[in-house]
Design a protein that fits this description.
The chain folds into 2 domains: 22-53 and 66-85 and 169-267, Rossmann fold (3-Layer(aba) Sandwich); 98-166. It contains 10 helices and 10 strands. It has helices spanning 41-49, 75-81, 103-115, 119-132, 138-143, 151-165, 181-194, 207-213, 231-236, 241-250; strands at residues 2-11, 16-25, 30-35, 56-65, 68-69, 86-89, 169-173, 199-203, 216-221, 224-230. It has a 6-stranded mixed sheet, sandwiched between helices. The chain has a 4-stranded antiparallel sheet with strand order 2-1-4-5, covered by helices on one side. The longest helix is centred in the middle third of the chain and has 15 residues, at 151-165. The radius of gyration is 19 Å and the shape is globular. It is found in: Cell membrane. It holds the Pfam family ABC_tran.
């Protein structure tokens, strides 16, 4: 089980960024996290991944993984958890790859280091994983450089890496925002399968994906969890103004994969 307890963060100058944020993640479920831009979603993700900006300090709370507080662990220990225990899906998959190294080489190296397997076994696993995400021309994709693939294909490669590593916890940062409808649908379906064995924190404004994937929904505002509940109940009866507006727009012709580009409400 992953438990975030009263996580609090400030800038070095004292500005409050996260205010006693608490929630839990368990394998077999998906928790959605939404809220207006600047509400603290990215700050929270960075804190959990141990990559907070240099001017941000975690000043309270715990981040427990199976009872062990990761905030008290060294950077080396936290790095070792990346991949096999903690997985990450970026908003822009291009940022996850070295543009000067082929996709296959990067996949194989990741599997070799994280799973402690031989190079040949890592290459075989890479090819198998690419086929699992329906990249049928897997040999071409394996040899290609990131710049030669579309965003949707790169997001599938990211999913292939996750499938190969099988992390217990997955953090997804707006993973559908840059995808066309076909790739959005694919990614949502793949995450639905993965959540059978993993716990997923799904950060998004995509109402369709949230309703499809998320059992629980958290709404952030001003660095704190302003509203929470099962997705169905919260969508049916939102209490906070931002959530009401989110649900209203999602139910109109503007909805259906609607994303939040600006906040019409005072923060």
């Amino acid at each position: 089980m992953m438990e975030v307890k009263d996580l609090t963060a400030r800038t070095r100058k004292g500005k409050l960024l996260l205010d006693h944020v608490s929630f839990t993640l368990e394998p077999g479920g998906c928790t959605g996290l939404t809220g207006a831009s600047g509400s603290g979603k990215t700050t929270l993700l960075k804190a959990l991944l141990g990559v907070s900006d240099s001017d941000v300090a975690i000043c309270g709370g715990q981040f427990l993984l199976d009872g062990k507080d990761l905030l008290q662990q060294t950077e080396k220990v936290r790095r070792e958890l990346c991949g096999t225990t903690l997985g990450f899906i970026p908003q822009n998959p291009m940022t996850a790859f070295n543009l000067h190294v082929s996709v296959g080489a990067q996949m194989a190296e990741t599997f070799r280091k994280r799973l402690h397997i031989e190079k040949r076994a890592a290459q075989k696993l890479s090819m198998e994983a690419l086929k699992k995400v329906h990249l049928t021309d897997s040999e071409r994709v394996y040899r290609a450089y990131p710049g030669q693939l579309s965003g949707g294909m790169l997001q599938r490669v990211t999913m292939a890496i996750l499938l190969g590593l099988s992390p217990r916890y997955i953090f997804a940062d707006e993973p559908t925002s840059a995808l066309d409808e076909d790739n959005k649908s694919y990614l949502t379906q793949e995450l639905a399968r993965m959540k059978q064995q993993s716990a997923i924190l799904f950060v998004s404004h995509d109402d369709t994906a949230i309703r499809t994937l998320c059992d629980e929904l958290l709404v952030m505002q001003n660095g704190t969890i302003a509203e929470r509940g099962t997705t169905s109940n919260l969508v049916a009866s939102p209490q906070e103004e931002w959530t009401k507006e989110f649900v209203r727009l999602a139910s109109t012709e503007e909805g259906g994969g609607w994303t939040w580009n600006k906040s019409p409400l005072p923060m």
